[in-house]
Amino acid sequence: MLKLNKNHDPSIREPLIIGNKTFQNITEDILRPIKNKAGKLWWISLLISIMAFLWGLGCIFYTIGTGIGVWGLNRTVNWAWDITNFVWWVGIGHAGTLISAVLLLFRQKWRLSINRSAEAMTIFAVIQAGLYPIIHMGRPWNAHWVLPIPNQFGSLWPNFNSPLLWDVFAISTYFSVSTVFWFMGLIPDFAMIRDRVTDPLQKKIYGILSFGWGGTSKDWKRFEEISLLLAGLCTPLVFSVHTIVSFDFSTSVIKGWHSTIFPPYFVAGAIFSGFAMVQTLLGVARKVLSLESYITRNHIEYMNMIILLTGGIVLLAYISEFILAWYSSSPFEEFTYFSVKAATGPFWWAFWALIICNVLIPQFLWIRSVRRSFFWSYIIAIFINIGMWFERFDIIVLNLSHDYLPSSWTGFMPSFVDVGIFIGTIGFFFVLYLLYIRVFPVISQAELKTILTLKCSKKNVTKNE
């Protein structure tokens, strides 16, 4: 008779699904937001998000029609608000692939309740990030020039030595692979919705999206094989995409940017901010969609542990940057984003916002009661998102505002167009997410049921013993 290994007995761990749920309960709970009418809170959130998106869209049209001069850029700080938001959005998109791909390869079951929202967050965040390089061109109708395709100028090819072109290939690859991985995981759930909805139009749409899924053993075998293959493709992307984004800075000769620590530092910071955004979205979805039984304190605690780990790596990078700037004894290094002059100079407010939000506040997660609290985890995640934005702002603006020539030193103040475009991308992000949770299942019910299967199998083995 088969016996369980007592050293790996799942009964010693707290359950990932609470409330004594059955297979039917899981299906009904996940299908409910799609079949039922949207609540008042959802409509209010969607209306606010659409208003923010339209404001940003108006600012984008104003920029294209008037020129980049409407931004707050100047002769010295000629790359500020737009690249800050670009790097911030790319970083937020990192946690989705990490949760989906890397944790899948390591067979971590706690990912099952949060991976779908994280995957969608990745796609929506990369869409926001991709808007900024196009707008920053000034002539977005020539955006196709960055692609190695024949064009009206004959043999004109992109400059493959430019890190900006590396961004185009890295982010487009990241977006396409992440989208395929996300859609593949949805196919069994599309089939479930197809078989349960009564509206003919919905049944037709979900029937097309499910690609004839029948739930046979052959279907599941191919599904698992493709999932592992795509997870293997996505895993290097987690580390390569933000590494290439960091090359925008580290391959330059600008003081404070020319640093070999940027690639691992940017990757750790991206995971740090990405998990914080997942916490933020799950805090809303858990209450709005009544998913308290599936997004438990265990999930919050596990994510907070990864936030602590990556936050520690980011803190180590901060210390390294400060020591290297001090040890170099270079007067130009006194104005880098992590120096004494940064803490006391004209941008002191941005520096201390970074320290408070990214260094001090996350230390509360060492307290177990805080680490397992839904409320405090949500609040800390918001502060981390704010702090990571200020980190990118400090890296770019502080280093550019004090160049090698004191005669060119200047400040930076964003215009209403800068702020409007940023708010518009936030609104666009939440519009996509709110529509997503009304049309697609936010939790993979097919994969989630494997936890109950393991639980039932364990009970049967114990009974036979």
Secondary structure elements and pairings:
Blueprint: H1 23-35, H2 40-66, H3 81-92, H4 94-105, H5 115-136, H6 163-196, H7 200-209, H8 217-250, H9 262-288, H10 297-328, H11 340-344, H12 348-360, H13 368-371, H14 374-401, H15 416-439, H16 445-464
Helix pairs in contact: 1-16, 2-15, 3-5, 3-9, 3-14, 4-5, 4-8, 4-9, 5-6, 5-15, 6-7, 6-8, 8-9, 9-10, 9-14, 12-14
Describe, in short, the structure shown.
With 465 residues, this protein is mostly helical. Helices cover 68% and strands 0% of the residues. It has 16 helices and no strands.
Low-confidence parts: 1-10, 456-465
Q: What integer value in Å does the Rg equal? A: 24 Å
Global outline:
globular
Count every beta strand, where a strand is a DSSP E run of 2 or more residues. 0
N/C terminus separation: 8 Å
- The residue fraction in helices comes out at 55-70%
Tell me the fraction of residues in β-strands, as a range: under 5%
Order of helices and strands: HHHHHHHHHHHHHHHH
